[in-house]
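Annex B, item 7. Sequence and structure tokens for protein A, then protein B.
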Amino acid sequence: MTSRIGTWKIAAGIGMLALIGAGCGSSGTSSSSGAPTTAAPTTVAKANTTKPPTQAVVSGTGVRVIPGSADGTSPCEEAAPTPASPGQVGAGQGGSAAVKTAAQAEAEAHGARGKVQPVPLTPAEQSILQAQMAVAKQVAVAYPTVKDAEAAGYSKSTVYVPCIGAHYTNVGLAAKFDPAHPSELLYTGTDPDSKLVGLSYLVWHGGGPPPGFAGANDRWHQHNANGGLCLKGGLVVGGESSTRQECAAMGGHKTLLTDIWMVHAWVVPGITCKWGTFSGECPELGGRLGGTATDGPYPSKFS
């Protein structure tokens, strides 16, 4: 048990994951300012202007991304033209250990973004999921701001990241999936009054993804491509696309987090994420890395 808890602590910054590899920065810092250990770029590249596909993009596991659901103009895509991690892309092998090279990890990170075609649910699954969603939404009432999360034992594990928010983690809740007790909370920034935008369930589970929300639409992902993350102590200092040499130069070592799984849940009232409740990225979340969701030049848009 002690070794497992240690692994959870190492994984506390997993929400940021491959940001250095994506040219976005680091997941944490030892400084009190909370700034990334690698400076964010001073300019933001324009989003890919390639026309969206006219047919569904289908991954090797049968995940289908709906054509045109990502067209490069959302705040997320404009603020972060390259996804933070291949594990958060709708189509592709994502963060699996089957992606064995830096080039493959980078290619996967450029995979098809967008809304994954949902799988129809049975009436029984719909009933259970509705109850689970009602429970999860109560978290928004309990932890509306960063200061509420910190008072409840959550600690900052990442700076603010476009598309996924600033992560606050309680590793003591990572032992099992519980809709009422997510191990991570996602916020619009790291100020005490920054607002909750989503939940993230980071769970230790051997032998495959854990039991989660009812139905087959909560697609759990990992971040083990190209030998995993570059860890330096408890911090993620390099992403999946970093090589072992690059990682060593940063004072870290590549680490597979084999039994750690994650799924996001965009269930906070007033926050609309059109790519789906369980999508890896929320397209409405723009903003600036290390800043807030409302920072320019591509601020978030909520409806």
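Protein B:
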Amino acid sequence: MAVRIRLQRKGARHMAFFRIVVADSRAPRDGRFIEQLGYYDPLKDPADINLKSEKAIDWLSKGAQPSETVRALFSRIGIMETWHEMKKGRSYDELAHIEEEARKKIEARAAMERRKKEEKKGKKQAEAEKEAKEAAAPVDDAPAAEAPAEADAVAEVEAEASDESGEAAVEPAEGDAVVEAPADEPAADPEPAEETPADEQGSAEGDETKTDA
């Protein structure tokens, strides 16, 4: 009879945990088993691997073959390394520190992952709070307040220029041609009245005399 060390699924849907059992390889996965060696709970952080280590090594020494998943779990907690060292003639008590160190590494790795997740969460929360404060901050009205003051300064300069020259100073718009007023020209002499020649005047008087006669 071929004997395997494998997982037996238990628990509700989406809340599964697994027994680590020794069973006949011909038996169904969740069927009858020979002995339970422990359990595996992947939902915990870190995943909980509870195992009767000496029993597991005893079954390995009897020829029981672990499934791929169980072999990976045993390697994670140092059982496979302990088993290989025991095959060289060393006792379990001498090698107990292997499992202890492996479990400490698992715990340290899980603690580091939790710390990274917390730091990442804290950064996201700080960024969200910063964005919320910026969105709630009042709009800066300083530029709008400076505009009337600048207009008043321009008006004062124009008023001073008007007082000095007698007329308002107007600056040409950008792009407009500047036309300078021509200098004062001397007034043109009035044209002389047209004079009647003396001969024509005399003949006109004679005609008037003849008419009277």
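Comment on protein B: Residues 3 and 183 are 124 Å apart (CA to CA).
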